Amino acid sequence: QPQPPSSSTTFLSMSRFSSHKKKTDIQRKKTREFETPKQTMTLSSLSLSLSLEEIKSTIVGTTSLGLATGKTSSSSSPAASSSPEELISDVVEKMLRALKERRTDDAWMQLQTLKGEGIEPSRECLSRLVAQLSHHGTPSSLSKAQRILSDLRKQDKIRQLDSDSLGLLAMASARAGAARYALRIVRLMLELDLYPPVKIWSAIVSRLGRQPDDGLLALELFDDICLYFRAPDAVELSMNTMRPDTGAFNAVLNACATLGLMDRANTIIGLMPRFGVLADTLTFNVLIKLYARTEQMELLKGVFGRMEEAGVEPDQSTLNSLVAAYVGLGDLEAAESLVERFWKMPQENVQAHHEKCESSSSHSQTENSVVEYRGISLKSERHRMLKFWSPERQEERARSEDAGSVASERRWGHRLRPDVRTYTTLMKGYVQEGQVGDAIDFLLAMEQKFDPNVSPNEVTYTTAIAACVRLNLMDEAHSILREMRLRKVPANIVTYNILLSGYCRSRNMEKAYALVADMKLAGISLDVVSYNTLINGCIKSGDNVAALAHFQQMREGGIAPSEVSYTTLMKAFGQSGQPRLVHQVFEEMQADPRMRPDSVAWNVLIDSICQSDRMADAKSAFKRMKEARLHPTVVTYTMLVKGFARAGMWGEALVLWNEIKERTEAKIGSGLEPLQPDEVLLDCLVDTCVRAGYFQRALEIVACMEDNRILADKTKYKRMFIELYSDLYTSQHTSQRRRDKSEEKRDAVEAFKFWVGLPNKYYSSDWSP
């Protein structure tokens, strides 16, 4: 028989049981409860930091462990004389029961009780709690789950959580917008050989792939997962749940489309047969996005043919994605042709619509809405839609179409039809090209049931409103909003925000506030875009106080500020010459767990620092920006070059030029983000080099300008050279030794003088190149 632990003597002397044998049997039973095949734990090995006084107070019913029974020491209940290990076991049991009954808040409180006494619950309890908190998905529940994970990592006890709980936390974090945090969890699982199922890690790849700043992280994760399956013989059975499927390939292809990496996408497509994965409709829809992003027009036109070869049928999203791709590339003729190909309408409907247009034209003076539309329709609404689908146009299209297009129409034309989204996308194309009249024509035709299966919705009307706002026709835009009310088409928050942006852009804040009042009457609450628009409008109107007030109202209303909210406010403080407040807003943005400062925010911060001539701090901020894995933009470099030039830090400007030159010559997919310099940046660099006397570098930058078809202002540099260096190298008393030493610099000066057309060693008088 095992002997009771030495500390049990204290418990025996203080208990109120009448029989010594009964007390011994109970003690032996408790000892056996801690003995498992894998671990033996006795009372003496429990890590309970309890003093003798605490044990006594526990027995008489106090709450040193937070587990008071509510009875005094005079009670005859056995619970009043329970030992500490019994009380701890009771807490763990309560926590497990709460988890089984899905009382997550109660389980969380029990966990805090145990942690207050330095006691860790079982692996089952912790895993279940994290899983349930993740399943809830609310900010507070996710914060609790993340706190548990953080505490376990600090204690090096991360294996207290199983793979299911970690996977659920990663998935929930990704859905909540914390994709980078989810990525860290997945990498932690891989380090622990807890292989995340493909459903979890592909969801994180999908979230990361939607943002250009996170796209490379998505590709890295996909590559790391594929490395586990590099050698098929070494693949463990537990890894099979992690094997990439069609959804995973679609997610990483979408990341390539976001970044415009055509070669990388082709490599990934080549991996699909190796994993036994076949392309589906979504795969081709993502490829359409990629082709549009990389301006591969020929590949776009061949999508239907490749889908037919692969035995994959297109869906409505395929048709709409293709129309959107053509519109995005500015090829409205190709978009119209595609819509025509899948649009079917009996000729009698065309004739009926023609007569209806004639009738509406003769009565246009009595129909206020048509008159208002016609004011901006360029008098073409009666003919635009009819000429698209006239018999002559259909015969012309039939002659010009290739066999592949005809086959696609015959095979899928019976179930693919242009819908309201298709027509609305075409309308957006007309708006982008400035063909506002054509956009209004589409709206009129849809209202008059040119296609009986399609009626304009709130998106269609919103597109028409955007067309008016684009031309600053705010009265006409508001009339379309009234038309929506008459037709009982509810305007949404996007509709109001577009109108609001038009008023704020024209600095008509009085009408902007009136529109806000109309929104509230319609039961539509302002969102973050609404507040951002108002803040920007106030800044443009010079009312920074009102801008700050709207920012405070947004936060008090429980609306989380976005990146635009912070950067807009930073711009306001920067324009008013308050760099300290700019830095404070930026720090607050960094402290916000939902925010990740983007390139715009960093640019505003760096600009405010440069304007205050603190170039050492600007250089430090520039370094931190790159450490945050953000690529400096042309605006970033321009601000820094100007700042270094003002401070006379010519060498720092040259260092920037080396970086700019390297990125200018980089190719997509080379590992270095390509940069397309503009005239302002290159002109600043040439100006800086000329003032500093670096003529060889100035000529390098001039060559870069010529490569990018940017015209340099030679007159400006000629005048600058005359003002600054009219006596340079003109002394007749310079020794031959000094001449030889500065020969390279002299050649650069002569070359520069040759370029601007000043007298040089090649020409002895002024000349015009």
UniProtKB/TrEMBL annotation:
Keyword Repeat: yes
UniProt biased composition (Polar residues): 1-17
First and last residues of every PPR repeat: 245-279, 280-314, 419-449, 457-491, 492-526, 527-561, 562-592, 598-632, 633-663
InterPro entries: At1g68980-like_TPR, PPR_rpt, TPR-like_helical_dom_sf
PROSITE patterns assigned to the protein according to its UniProt record, in alphabetical order: PPR (PS51375)
Region (Disordered): 1-38, 66-86
Biased segments, Basic and acidic residues type: 24-36
Record domain At1g68980-like TPR repeats: where: 89-226
Family the UniProt entry places it in: Belongs to the PPR family. P subfamily.
This protein's name: At1g68980-like TPR repeats domain-containing protein
